[in-house]
C-alpha cells in the first residue's frame, strides 16, 4: 500500500506512538490535532523524521471539512482520536458520544470522499467485555460484543460510545464499500511521548502514588482487586500498523498481553520500585472475569513485550516528565 496515511488525534498517548512508528517505517504522516500551535503537541515535531514527513492539520472530529482536508491524498487512515475521560463527565452526550459517534462517521465519510483504501478504527476492549451475560471464565474473543443497553443503564458512556462507534464503523464500511478493520486494545500503559497525563497513564501514576483509591466511586477505603488486562503502548501502536499493512487483515483484533490482579500489579511494582507508596487495602470484586484472547492478532505475526519492561519504561518516562513529583 502507498505510504501516506492520516492519524487522527495525533498528539494523544497512543497516537503519538503510532506517528513515531510510522515515521520510522518511512511513511508520510498527516496528523490531525485540534490546535497545531498548542505547546502540548510540541513532542510531535521533535520525532525522528518529523521535519520531512509529518504534516499537522488542524481538525476537530465534529468538523467534517477539517477532516476532509487532512485525509485528502492519503491511502490509509488510522482513526485513533476519541475522548477518553478518566471518570464520569457531566454531559456524556456532548463530551463523549458526539465526538465518538458523529466524529467516527465524519472520518469515514471523508475516507470515502478521498478514496482511502483502508481505515483502522481504534476501538477498545470496552466494546468487547461489558456484557453481564457472558459466562465467568469464558474466553473473550472477537465474536464478543458489549451489551449496549447494559452500558447505557449502568452509565458506562465510554463503553457505550466505543461499542456503538465500532459497530457503526463496520456497518458504514459494508454499506459504502470501505475497508474497515478495528483494533481493540485493553488498558494501555508504557512510556509517554506527550507531556500531559492521559487516563490510562493516570491509573499507574495513582497506583504508585498511593492515590489510586480516589478512582473508586463512592469513596470506599479499599482498592477493588480486579483483573487488569494490560498492553504496552508500543505494542498497541504496532498492532494498529499491522492491521493497516497486512493485506489479509479483516474484522476485529483484540490487542492485549497480560492479565494481572491489581494487588499483584502493585506487588510487582513494589519489587521494582520499593520507594513508592502503594495501596494497602484491597477488596475482592464481584465483577465477572474471563480470558481475553489476542490469538487473532498473533496470527498476523504481532507479538508483545514482557510486563516488567512496560512497567519500568512507564515509570522512567513519568519521572522524566516530572509526573511523580
Ligand atoms: N489508553 C487506553 O488504555 C485505551 C485502551 C483502549 C482503547 N483506547 C483508545 O485509544 C485511543 C487513544 O486513546 P489514548 O489513551 O491515547 O487517549 P488520549 O491520550 O486522551 O488521546 C485522545 C485523543 O483524541 C483527541 N480528541 C478527543 N476529542 C476530539 C475531538 N472532538 N476532535 C479531535 N480530536 C479529539 C484528543 O485531542 P486533544 O489532544 O486535542 O484533546 C487526543 O489527541 C482512543 O480511541 C481510545 O478509545 C485507549
UniProtKB/TrEMBL annotation:
Domain NAD-dependent epimerase/dehydratase: 5-249
Molecular function (Gene Ontology), one example: oxidoreductase activity, acting on the CH-OH group of donors, NAD or NADP as acceptor
Superkingdom of origin organism: Eukaryota
Keyword rRNA-binding in record: no
Keywords: NADP, Oxidoreductase
Keyword ATP-binding part of the UniProt annotation: no
PANTHER family in UniProt: NAD DEPENDENT EPIMERASE/DEHYDRATASE (PTHR10366), NAD(P)-BINDING ROSSMANN-FOLD SUPERFAMILY PROTEIN (PTHR10366:SF776)
Protein name (record): NAD-dependent epimerase/dehydratase domain-containing protein
Annotated organism of origin: Trapa natans (Water chestnut)
Lineage: Eukaryota, Viridiplantae, Streptophyta, Embryophyta, Tracheophyta
Amino acid at each position: 500500500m502507498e505510504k501516506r496515511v492520516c492519524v487522527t488525534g495525533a498528539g494523544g498517548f497512543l497516537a503519538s506512538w503510532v506517528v513515531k512508528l510510522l515515521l520510522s517505517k518511512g511513511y508520510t504522516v498527516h496528523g490531525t490535532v485540534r490546535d497545531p500551535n498548542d505547546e502540548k503537541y510540541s513532542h510531535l515535531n521533535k520525532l525522528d523524521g518529523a521535519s520531512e514527513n509529518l504534516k499537522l492539520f488542524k481538525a476537530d472530529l465534529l468538523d467534517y471539512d477539517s477532516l476532509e482536508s487532512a485525509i485528502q491524498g492519503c491511502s490509509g487512515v488510522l482513526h485513533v482520536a476519541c475522548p477518553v475521560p478518566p471518570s464520569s463527565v457531566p454531559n456524556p452526550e456532548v463530551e463523549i458520544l458526539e465526538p465518538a459517534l458523529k466524529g467516527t462517521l465524519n472520518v469515514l465519510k471523508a475516507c470515502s470522499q478521498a478514496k482511502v483504501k483502508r481505515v483502522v478504527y481504534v476501538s477498545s476492549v470496552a466494546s468487547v467485555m461489558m456484557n453481564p451475560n457472558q459466562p465467568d471464565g469464558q474466553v473473550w474473543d472477537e465474536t464478543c460484543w458489549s451489551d449496549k443497553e447494559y452500558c447505557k443503564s449502568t452509565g458506562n458512556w465510554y463503553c457505550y460510545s466505543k461499542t456503538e462507534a465500532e459497530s457503526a464503523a463496520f456497518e458504514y464500511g459494508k454499506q459504502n464499500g470501505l475497508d474497515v478493520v478495528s483494533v481493540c486494545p485493553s488498558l494501555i500503559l508504557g512510556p509517554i511521548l506527550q507531556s500531559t497525563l492521559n487516563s490510562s497513564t493516570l491509573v499507574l501514576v495513582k497506583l504508585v502514588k498511593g492515590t489510586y483509591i480516589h478512582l473508586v466511586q463512592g469513596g470506599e477505603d479499599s482498592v477493588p482487586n480486579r483483573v487488569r488486562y494490560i498492553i504496552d503502548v508500543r505494542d498497541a501502536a504496532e498492532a494498529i500498523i499491522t492491521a493497516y499493512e497486512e493485506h489479509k487483515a479483516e474484522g476485529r483484533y483484540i490487542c492485549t498481553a497480560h492479565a494481572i490482579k491489581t494487588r499483584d500489579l502493585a506487588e510487582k511494582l513494589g519489587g521494582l520500585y520499593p520507594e513508592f507508596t502503594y495501596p494497602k487495602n484491597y477488596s475482592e470484586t464481584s465483577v465477572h472475569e474471563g480470558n481475553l484472547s489476542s490469538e487473532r492478532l498473533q496470527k498476523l505475526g504481532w507479538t508483545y513485550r514482557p510486563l516488567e519492561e512496560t512497567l519500568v519504561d512507564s515509570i522512567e518516562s513519568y519521572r522524566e516528565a516530572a509526573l511523580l513529583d
